[in-house]
RNA sequence: GCGCCCGUAGCUCAGCUGGAUAGAGCAACAGCCUCCGAAGCUGUAGGUCACACGUUCGAAUCGUGUCGGGCGCACCA
């Protein structure tokens, strides 16, 4: 069978039809359209594909749209897979597909391929390793993990080669704060810190939880005595510098705690099915001098220059993204004696990358790091194994040569990158892209996606439930912002525990006959599914006001609703004593065209039509970098299935032809639902 | 002050590159379990898509402005 005939489900059919019409338009009217819209009609009576192309042509051809549509309609009738073409409304071209044909193709699992060449790096989670993860971090990790699953090669799609990274800021101020906490507030030295961590471990206490409270205490402590505030802040900076330098007890304490907390984060995320391939650390970016290499590249290209005047005097700066330089000229003038002379006064808006003290800012380090990601820095990390997952190793960076290189290539050779980062960092992210552009890496800059999302707050109700006393001002707002400094927020592990416990209560009530271990497993799948779905159903720009009551609801538009539909479908096969696979094979022989065309069959056909859109929706979700699109689609599939389930009673169906089709319908619905949920990291339990 | 995001049903949100009577869930009300498990289904009610202009055959969608809310604009990360 030629490839064109093989891949002809919704997405493929759409592509074929678009190409055909484009050539028809050129042939007949000499018109070329940049894009040709093919949409899903609002009602099934209008067919499966609708083309508003006649409206578009009306103004160019100075003809009534309906007239154009009537001219085009007969020309489209010959397209393969199209059963009929109608002109509707003021000039819509509505296509009806050959239902019997589509059903057989889908039963054989023919679908458009999604994927491509190149290595893509997805970076997410990136929690400061100085305290427990909270809901906001979960949104980040779940978004990133789902997106990685959408891209990755699997049974359904060739996908892309990908690497999943979790950037570890193990030498930042937040880690410094926790070090100040254990040393100054708790009076520990290195040996005592080791003992303390051992004690926590032996008494089954979580290090990240202990740090959560300590971090809050330190943050308060800095400002608790105005007379000592300056001194205490100095202690903080001194501690930071010692950590950055390395090779001293302070740095060792920082490393012990940061690594210990990081291991806890990995445990927390693993509970949700989230794994990483590589953990690049800031300490190596410093010790391997990534910045100096980047710095030279940037100076050579004139992107980075020394400011000798104005408020940024003594700093190395670059033009701020999206802002014209403050001076009259187009940026800095020619370089003179190692310094660039501003063409027309200093650019006061410039972004500082190196402070007058000689230290590098966050954005500076980030530029170096991103040159590495694209393989443009000309140097690499050294790699060491860090954590063994069931199916693969998670690596970390190190500054000592190990002779080990994951997959023989490491990770710094991306063709495209996706950074899952809070939208409060839109500006610095834009600045990094601007630096790439300035260095002449236009293409890389284009393939740099900041997968941004609005932060997660808490509803007033949930904040009060956590024992937080609200001010009147806070009560009036739609959400309360979480604060690590105040130790205020919903810790990830606590939340996961509550989700699973809520599911467990239901499972125990519904399935007392099951073994304890199986009930536990089912509850975990449901609790995790509910949590992941809850954080995925909102589009990225939507600020989530987290509320326990909403999250713990398992009715309606939730993960458990979708899981339930898949479980119901599976139950049908169990009770019928038929394998889903066999049902899909069975539908190949037999003629269902008439049945599918009937009024009753249309409600069955709608299930197939919904299921046929998997590739289309996946492509759309990848293009928009928006897992919420898939989450909503999963819900729609489940809803469609529940409709179908109530309308057609399969097991009692006496007509064999009809029963075969109904069984195949349930099989397809379940297959696609399981797939889509899988990309969202949501499993389907054995029973519900 | 400048930049970015947002304003859609009582509440929480969808609405793709403009297109057919603006859609879900929750909450409310009325029904449906001797029938593939009711974490489900059916029905009712609920909207001047913040507002005003503009572009267009056509605007929730694009443009400008106003009002209201959020977030950024450090020699912090």
UniProtKB/TrEMBL annotation:
UniProt KW keywords: Aminoacyl-tRNA synthetase, ATP-binding, Ligase, Nucleotide-binding, Protein biosynthesis
Annotated catalysed reactions = tRNA(Arg) + L-arginine + ATP = L-arginyl-tRNA(Arg) + AMP + diphosphate
Q: Enumerate the spans annotated as Arginyl tRNA synthetase N-terminal domain.
A: 11-97
Pfam families of this UniProt entry? Arg_tRNA_synt_N (PF03485), DALR_1 (PF05746), tRNA-synt_1d (PF00750)
Task: Report the family membership.
Answer: Belongs to the class-I aminoacyl-tRNA synthetase family.
Q: What is one Gene Ontology biological process annotated in the Swiss-Prot or TrEMBL record? A: arginyl-tRNA aminoacylation
Q: According to the UniProt entry, what is the EC number of this protein?
A: 6.1.1.19
Source organism? Bryocella elongata
A GO cellular component annotated for this chain's UniProt record is: cytoplasm
Region: Disordered, residue numbers = 327-347
InterPro entries in alphabetical order: Arg-tRNA-ligase, Arg-tRNA-synth_N, Arg-tRNA-synth_N_sf, ArgRS_core, DALR_anticod-bd, Rossmann-like_a/b/a_fold, tRNAsynth_Ia_anticodon-bd
| Keyword Membrane (UniProt) | no
**GO molecular function annotations of the record:** arginine-tRNA ligase activity; ATP binding
- Taking every annotated instance into account, which residue ranges of this chain make up the domain DALR anticodon binding? 562-688
* Name this polypeptide is given: arginine--tRNA ligase
Superkingdom classification of source? Bacteria
């Amino acid at each position: 069978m030629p490839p064109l005939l093989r891949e002809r489900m919704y997405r493929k059919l759409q592509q074929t039809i678009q190409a055909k019409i484009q050539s028809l338009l050129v042939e007949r009217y000499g018109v070329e359209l940049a894009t040709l819209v093919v949409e899903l009609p609002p009602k099934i009576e209008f067919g499966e594909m609708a083309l508003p192309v006649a409206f578009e042509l009306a103004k160019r051809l100075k003809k009534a749209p309906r007239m154009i549509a009537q001219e085009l309609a007969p020309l489209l009738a010959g397209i393969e897979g199209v059963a009929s073409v109608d002109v509707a409304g003021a000039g819509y071209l509505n296509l009806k597909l050959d239902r019997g044909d589509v059903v057989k193709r889908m039963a054989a699992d023919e679908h458009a391929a999604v994927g491509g060449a190149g290595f893509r790096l997805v970076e997410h989670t990136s929690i400061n390793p100085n305290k427990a993860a909270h809901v906001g971090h979960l949104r980040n990790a779940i978004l990133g993990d789902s997106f990685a699953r959408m891209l990755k090669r699997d049974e359904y799609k060739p996908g892309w080669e990908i690497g999943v990274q979790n950037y570890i800021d193990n030498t930042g101020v937040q880690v410094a704060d926790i070090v100040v906490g254990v040393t100054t507030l708790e009076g520990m030295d290195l040996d005592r810190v080791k003992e303390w961590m051992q004690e926590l471990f032996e008494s089954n206490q979580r290090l990240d939880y202990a740090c959560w409270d300590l971090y809050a205490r330190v943050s308060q402590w800095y400002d608790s005595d105005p007379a000592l505030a300056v001194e205490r802040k100095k202690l903080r900076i001194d501690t930071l510098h010692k950590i950055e330098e390395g090779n001293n007890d302070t740095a060792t304490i920082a490393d012990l705690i940061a690594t210990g907390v990081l291991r806890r984060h990995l445990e927390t995320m693993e509970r949700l099915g989230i794994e990483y391939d590589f953990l690049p650390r800031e300490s190596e970016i410093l010790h391997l001098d990534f910045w100096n290499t980047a710095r030279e590249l940037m100076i050579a290209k004139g992107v980075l220059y020394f400011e000798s005047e104005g408020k940024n005097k003594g700093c190395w700066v670059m033009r701020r993204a999206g802002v014209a330089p403050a001076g009259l000229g187009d940026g800095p003038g020619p370089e003179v004696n190692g310094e660039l002379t501003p063409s027309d006064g200093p650019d006061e808006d410039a972004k500082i990358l190196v402070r007058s003290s000689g230290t590098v800012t966050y954005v500076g380090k980030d530029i170096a790091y991103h040159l590495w990601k694209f393989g443009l820095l000309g140097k690499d990390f050294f790699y060491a194994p860090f954590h063994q997952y069931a199916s693969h190793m998670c690596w970390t960076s190190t500054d000592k040569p190990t002779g080990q290189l994951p997959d023989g290539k490491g990770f710094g050779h991306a063709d495209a990158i996706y950074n899952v980062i809070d939208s409060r960092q839109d500006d610095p992210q834009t600045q990094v892209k601007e630096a790439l552009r300035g260095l002449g890496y236009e293409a890389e800059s284009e393939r740099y996606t900041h997968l941004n999302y609005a932060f997660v707050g808490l509803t007033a109700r949930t904040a009060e439930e956590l024992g937080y006393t609200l001010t009147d001002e806070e009560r009036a707002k739609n959400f309360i912002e979480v604060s690590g400094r105040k130790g205020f927020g919903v810790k990830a592990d606590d939340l996961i525990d509550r989700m699973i416990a809520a599911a467990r209560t239901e499972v125990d009530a519904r399935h007392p006959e099951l073994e304890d271990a199986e009930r536990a497993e089912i509850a975990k799948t449901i609790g995790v599914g509910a949590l992941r779905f809850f954080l995925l159903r909102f589009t990225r720009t939507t600020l989530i006001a987290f509320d326990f009551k909403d999250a713990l609801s398992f009715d309606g538009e939730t993960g458990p609703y979708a899981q339930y539909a898949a479980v119901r479908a599976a139950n049908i096969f169990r009770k019928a004593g038929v394998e889903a696979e066999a049902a899909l094979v069975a539908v190949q022989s037999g003629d269902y065209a008439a049945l599918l065309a009937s009024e009753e069959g249309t409600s069955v056909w709608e299930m197939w039509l919904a299921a046929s859109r998997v590739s289309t929706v996946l492509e759309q979700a990848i293009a928009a970098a928006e897992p919420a699109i898939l989450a909503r689609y999963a819900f729609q599939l489940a809803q469609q299935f529940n409709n179908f389930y109530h309308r057609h009673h399969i097991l009692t169906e006496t007509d064999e032809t009809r029963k075969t089709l109904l069984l195949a319908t349930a099989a397809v619905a379940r297959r696609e639902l399981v797939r889509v949920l899988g990309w969202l990291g949501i499993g389907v339990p054995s029973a519900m």
